[in-house]
Amino acid sequence: MKKGTTYRCASCGYEAAKWLGRCPECQEWGSFEERGAPVKPAIQRVAAGAPSAPARPIGEVDVEAARARRTGVPELDRVLGGGLVPGAVVLLAGEPGVGKSTLLLEVAYQWAKTVDRSLYVTGEESAGQVRLRAERTGNVHERMYLAAESDLSAILGHVDDVKPGVLIVDSVQTMASPQVDGSPGGVTQVRAVTSGLVALAKERGLPVVLVGHVTKDGSVAGPRVLEHLVDVVLQFEGDKHSTLRMVRGIKNRFGAADEIGCFELQEEGIVGVPDPSGLFMSRTAEPVSGTAITVSLEGKRPLLGEVQALVSATAAPQPRRAVSGLDSARVAMVLAVLEKRGGLKLGDKDVYAATVGGMKITEPGIDLALVLALTSSFEDVALSPRLVSVGEVGLAGEIRRVPSVGRRLAEAARLGFTHALVPPDSGKPPAGIRVLEVANVADALNAAGHAR
Which of 305, 434, 281 is closest to 362 using CA atoms? Predict the structure, then answer.
């Protein structure tokens, strides 16, 4: 090692005295770059320069040019905070095959149809392949422009020629800048390409949407600075065995960062689902034991979901515990509380717990529904089909309050539910639903029996 040489992570800026294969700060592999000995700059007086524009009182600043424009996809506009803001850079990340390109083809089509020209640049497929998918989903318009490029300078040339109202780049990991060394997808290239596209967006007031890959743990691939450079980060989620897709806001400089949009992937493309609660509940002619309805909160959006449980005897020496769509740690905790505080002997039983429709619920507010579903299956007695339950279960068996109970119950009442079990002091209930406050697990089980 050269005297005075240091090594710095290109992803997060962590410095070390020697080269490391993996950054201990951000866990990025192969991101350390050699740097010379740090030189402390002399303190210099900076001369005043001419401002690019005079400062004005904030009340005189024109905001019309910064108003969001609707993309024509309402569920996406909901997450964006109203639409695409001129000059904004949006990063849409998701697993392969989840439907990112299909969604953005819909955005390009709707924008060309209602606003202005749209330019879709693909670096992963040929132009013919994208055209075939666009025809299959019905997203072909004369003001939609398509280019297959992987060079940043070529993209800038297409923007000069087409003069689009929105630019979509699929994906940022396949693009490369000729002015920077490194292969496409590398830390240096991803950062350089993103910086160039951000500068283009700000200079021309052009909204830019970037597609990003994700790592094995679901986080955005590439340097961490990538998320800091862009204005909006969206996560596109979905189970490959389900048609349901969700766009979740992670970062948003122009709106709330906790909104979600729901979509359904169909043969003819991707369709927004403005009222998705029905997707998460099964439809049976008669009530079935082991099912309970709850209302989870995804961002600011209440969604009704069904929790199912199956408790059965087993001859195996080690009973099985299987969980799908729920937090396995919370399911184990609820089982322990039921055995200790509810008197249910579950230690020698197989227990299966799941949600319906591919819904994933990890918030504590569904604990009470899980308690009711497990007890219903254990006793083989069905609950009332018009009963919902919301509440967190503590280790002492108490039922704790959860946020936005009123909003959850209003959604349940809108869909025809007439009874609800909630924690004490949950506020005034909405009209059309009878609320029963339960303080602990025993009260909840007793109240659920009277609500049948």
Answer: 305
Q: How far apart are CA 391 and CA 388, in angstroms?
A: 10
The answer to whether 99 is a known ligand-binding residue is: yes
* Chain-centre distance for alpha carbon 197: 23
Q: How far apart are CA 99 and CA 106, in angstroms?
A: 11
Is 107 within 8 Å of 75 (Cβ atoms)? no
3-state DSSP percent of the chain in helix, strand and coil, to 5: 30, 25, 45
Identify the weakest region by mean pLDDT among 161-170, 355-364, 424-433, 440-449: 355-364
DSSP reduced 3-state for 340: helix
Tell whether 95 is in a known binding site.
Answer: yes
Rounded-to-integer distance, Cα 39 and Cα 389, Å: 63
**Which pTM value belongs to this model?**
0.78
Is 212 annotated to bind a ligand? Reply is: no
- H helices then E strands: how many in the chain? 10, 21
| 94 in a known ligand binding site | yes
Handedness of CA 402, 403, 405, 410 (dihedral sign): negative
- Amino acid 199: pLDDT: 95
Residue 32 phi/psi, 5° resolution? -80, 135
96 is in an annotated binding site: yes
Beta bridge partners of residue 302, listed in sequence order: 297
Q: Which of 107, 51, 88 is nearest to 200 (CA)?
A: 88
Reported as a single tens digit per residue, the pLDDT across 220-267 is: 777 777 888 999 999 998 877 778 888 999 999 998 887 889 898 888
| Vertex 74 angle, CA 135 and 172, to 5° | 60
Helix, coil or strand: residue 95 = coil
User: What is the C-alpha to C-alpha distance for residues 207 and 84, in angstroms, rounded to an integer?
Assistant: 6
101 labeled part of a ligand binding site: yes
pLDDT of 135 strictly over 60: yes
Is 427 annotated as contributing to ligand binding?
no
Summary mean pLDDT of the chain: 89
Q: Pull the structure tokens for residue 375.
A: 């007890």
Using CA atoms, how far apart are residues 407 and 405, in angstroms rounded to an integer? 6
pLDDT in tens, 54-80: 898 988 887 877 889 999 999 999 999
Annotated binding residue at 64? no
> What's the token pair of residue 86?
């001129």
Q: Is residue 39 classed exposed, middle or buried when 0-12, 13-18 and 19+ CB atoms within 10 A define those classes?
A: exposed
Comparing 357 with 322, the larger pLDDT belongs to 322
* Contacting residues for 291 by C-beta, under 8 A, at least 6 apart: 282, 306, 307, 308, 309, 373, 376, 382, 383
Q: Which of 15-19, 36-40, 117-121, 163-167 has the lowest mean pLDDT?
A: 36-40
